[in-house]
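Reopening closed ticket. The problem is back. First fold of the pair:
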Amino acid sequence: MKGFIQTIKNIWSIKELREKLMITFFFLVIYRFGSYVPLPGIDVNEVTRLLAAQADSQQGLLGLLNSFTGGSFNRASILALGIMPYISASIVVQLMGLAVPYLQKLQKDGDSGRKKITQITRWLTIAICLVQAPAYLTLLQTQLLPYSGGFASAYLIDPGTFWFIVPSTIILVTGTVFTMWMGEKITDRGIGNGISILIMVGILADLPRALINAFEIDQTGGIMFLLEIIGLLVVILLCVMLTQAVRKVPVQYVRRAQVGSSSYMRSMTDSVRSYIPLKVNASGVMPIIFAQAIMFLPATLIGFVSDPNSSLSLFFQKVADPFSWQHSVIFAFLIIIFTFFYTAITIPVNQMADDLKRNGGIIPGIKPGKDTADFLDDVLSKITLPGSLFLVVIAVLPAVAHLFGVDQGLAMFYGGTSLLIMVAVILDTIQQINTYLLNHHYDGLMTTGRSKNVA
């Protein structure tokens, strides 16, 4: 504890780091405050009460969106859409970069190209918001209607009028743009990746309430609650291992040097050993996000089935339930597929092989060029399979935890996208803080001053 307190003092003693932390904290406070500001014409207390009566609003993709926005989605806040439209736009631009020559050219143009891609992502974010905002307002009306007996109890004005839809759409779009701006400012002037930190803070906002609920319903004198906390810490440790694990591929760089006097020059070769760190989970949380987007389809298809008691409708209901075994099996299958797909399109083994050849680097025992690309692809395929299986375990753990009696709110923190995002963002932020500490000759937050990779 004494060492930890000294580390905090060291962090506070570095002026630049202190200013960055204060700027980050300032924007996070504004973000959390904005998540409680309701849209004009809505009684936020009544909306919260009505939506709390619906178990479905906390499940599936809607529950994920609400978690990412720190509850803003269910509170009908001006930041209800949060940063998710920007995330969607970034994914679309990234995937289009594989097929659109113009974007491929921008990716190779360095700083100027990145600025243009960022600008394209911003405009695409606004376009997505203009679609999602009216859809969100319509969804809100649909969710409230069966539970309120009409709109009078939740809305101060008629939700179907022009004077509600248009201003609310403009406010929701502005809220997302403002959130995007805060995220970029945190990245530029604060500490860590701003967009990721905003998502993490939104997720963590639900953790205290989940812990309190789990403690209140515990009827074993706190023993079950203690076991749940220990289990959560073990899962977090597994997520850290999954995020940091790499396969080190040895690389040898050969360089030539001239030695001796001008009359007796001779050439000598010197080799420098290095390695290529191939991540076991190179795709991050993207496979889970893609899989969850598809798993939301059964809930949509239920509305198109004429007989709600038919076997097809019951099957869709089971698949849409995130705590059913049917959902877990299909979810796991999709995660494995998307892990291989996303890894294949984001890790350019051919380009890596060309860069090695151009810089005089070789993998011992492997010929440069195509053989190197094939070798890297083979290694990547071998480590992606266990990585995807590990990702499946993390993704379905909430359902397993709920099966063993863990409260639904706390069970959602036992894995899935939320936990992986929190772990990845915290590790990245710690690494940046460590850099500042080590540059000023202080010990880092970790024992060695840097995060270790698990081979």
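Second fold of the pair, where the issue appears:
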Amino acid sequence: MRELVVISAGLSNPSSTRMLADRLAAAAQRGLEANARVVELREHAKDIANHFVTGFPSPALDEALDAVRGADGLIVVSPIFQASYSGLFKSFFDLFEADDLSGKPVLIGATGGSARHSLALEHALRPLFSYLRAVVVPTSVYAASEDWATGGDATLADRVERAGGELAALVDDRPVPAREDAFEEPVPFEQLLAQQHN
């Protein structure tokens, strides 16, 4: 079973950003046997800010960061503010080291009030994840307010399915990472006994 982590940077509840994230996750799971864990960044906003000041993540934020590092694939969706991703979205990904996302398949999505901001996916999100050495799927998905007016138009649904399928194929092609098992090679009893006598 593969592990997908879905990052939603929506600020309201409910939000169109989370709706798009959920649709993308469902589309990826149709082509891949995978669990999908959603991380709502608004729930970690204060901890992200504190991390920059103190240098230490809270336990909840640390768990979210570890989930991203250990994921087989990522789905990331941000609202578009001032023609780019949100500050909260950028701050979260600023917490990763240079190689944390290297080679990881990523599906990028965004939401906004107008279709005019759809290019933010290509001039903001795609370069960010290319810099982090992730492998970004060819199809990005932008949903404007009018896309939700009738429950999402057919064009949006087609893009969601295509992007989800691309992510599923990329994740499926990656070798399954070896999960660490602390009990796989226990220290032999004789060795433990010898250490006590020394």
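Update: turned out to be a display glitch only; the data is intact. The beta strands are 2-8, 34-40, 73-81, 84-85, 105-112, 135-136, 141-144. Helices lie at 16-30, 45-54, 59-70, 87-93, 120-131, 145-148, 154-173, 189-197. Please close again.
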